[in-house]
Amino acid sequence: MIMQDPPIVELNGVNKWYGDFHVLKDIGLEVARGEKVVVCGPSGSGKSTMIRCINRLEEHQSGCIVVDGVELGDDLKAIEAIRRRVGMVFQSFNLFPHLTVLENLTLAPIRVAGMTPAEAADTAMALLERVRIPDQAAKYPGQLSGGQQQRVAIARALCLKPKVMLFDEPTSALDPEMVGEVLDVMTALASEGMTMICVTHEMAFARAVADTMVFMDEGRVVEVAKPALFFDHPANERTRRFLGKIIGH
Amino acid sequence: MSRPLSWAKANLFGSPASSLLTVLTLALLWQVVPPLVDWALIGASWGAGDPERCRAAGGACWTLLTERHRLMLFGVYPYDQHWRPALAVALFIALLAISANRRCWKPWLGGAWALAVMIFAALMWGGVLGLAPVETSQWGGLPLTLVIAVLAIAVAFPFSILLALGRRSGLPAIRAVSVGYIELVRGVPLVSVLFMASVMFPLFLPEGMTIDKVLRALVGMTLFTAAYLAEAVRGGLQAIPRGQFEAADALGLGYWRSMRLIILPQALRLVIPPIVNQFITCFKDTSLVTIVGLYDLLAASKAALNDPAWRPYFVEGYLAAALVYFCFCFFMSRYSQWLERDLRQGNR
Ligand SMILES: Nc1ncnc2c1ncn2[C@@H]1O[C@H](COP(=O)(O)OP(=O)(O)OP(=O)(O)O)[C@@H](O)[C@H]1O
Ligand SMILES: [Mg+2]
User: Fold this and answer.
1) Cβ contacts of B347 on chain A, cutoff 8 Å
2) Residue B134's closest CA among B208, B72, B209, B79?
3) What is the residue extent of each domain of chain A?
């Protein structure tokens, strides 16, 4: 990690409420360029909410979030610009069912980045090679398996050449035999130096790939540590209990 | 047993109840069909002639159509100029046929329609290229029905999409305006909207300024249709999962692009049946413009039957008018079914 560079994502004292419900409490987090952060924690602890605040799918009410030097505020144009620099992969894929795989990938480059269709198709095919399904380009999402759909979704998130990738439980909607193929793609992406913030409960993946582990509980960041320390000597009692539960069986 | 016999046994006489129904139906058909054939075909009078001929024949008077079809189709439009509305109608129908082809859904189609409307207006109005001018008060029949229906639908559809989006907007002012408009228009009958457009509206205009009667009826139809269409479109928008909006947002598409490229293409194909339903309703409702003094197809047909000598044969006249309405509506209905299937084949 290069610590002297300014962090590419920075959350400072971020709070968010749903009505009376305090979902995010004073969240602070810094992610350096090229860093891989894995976020875990019990269900309802606010992991999705936090990660979705980073590209403003959710709005935070206090504190500040700076992404690639731009603070997220009410400026819609700035937010759209940030979103193009941040790729997001959802639990439920969210591919566009009325478009082919290739069209899913070329839509944003053509419409947003102003690439020519030929350029965009070349980039898209290269990305499909990277996620190892170039032969599915002409199919519709509904014709693919879950694992293939999620790999297309990763390729789509990469199509605008983002600086940060957000993953919100990318493997939890998949049948067990398809989890591996998606994690392989993510591991390869990590080894190419992509900055990644990843909510997942795949602890073997986390241990292998993460530079930093973040544990959240009840809307707070409870523990931030290197994976070796995090898994073998968790400092916090709640982290210990959580890890005991999910690694125990 | 032979195929037809076993088929009849299985399908027509499968149980005592169905045997009874079969017998009753056959009896009913026996009662109805021969007299109908007798009236419509055997005893009918065909070809040109006068009402005397029909009286002598005793059956259906198709002679009426031969003699009066031009009045029914074109109303009081100057008789020697009927080729103009005929050409205008042909132009519209040709363009409708082209528009039905999905491969033609390109930007040029919009241009083609704009051009067609201009040619239509030039033909009907005249006053250019040596065509004798014809007031809109003399327009009537099928061209009037078609132009009101097609333009009302063409303008109401995009307008209704804006209304539906407005109703779901996060901006309270826009939402309130959309909801207010939709509820207000849906709360009143079309007849009163047409009255408002044609009688009340001019009262608010400055002295001396008038808006054409056809245009006023057109505006009324459009405003009315848009409110109903908006609710159909909103149904489609509501059926799109939140994930689709989020995925579009996450790509930085922005509101309008994500609506146009992601959400609406999916939402609209979900609601093709109610949308086409509204198109059909709009087409048939054009017959209500008669209450503001316009002679649409139905009113023109009625007027063509006003001659006391022909009046006994009004059934034939109305049947013919009904057949024209039916052709258009049936085409729209079948087309929408085809379109739904065609679009579904695309994905999965
Ligand atoms: N739109 C919303 N309105 C109200 N409450 C919400 C909303 N979205 C989430 N919540 C609540 O906020 C809390 C945090 O939700 P979040 O989805 O961030 O949890 P999570 O850590 O991602 O959990 P999981 O592991 O189940 O995905 C939950 O208690 C949830 O019920
Ligand atoms: Mg979650």
Assistant:
1) 97-98, 140-142
2) B79
3) 95-161
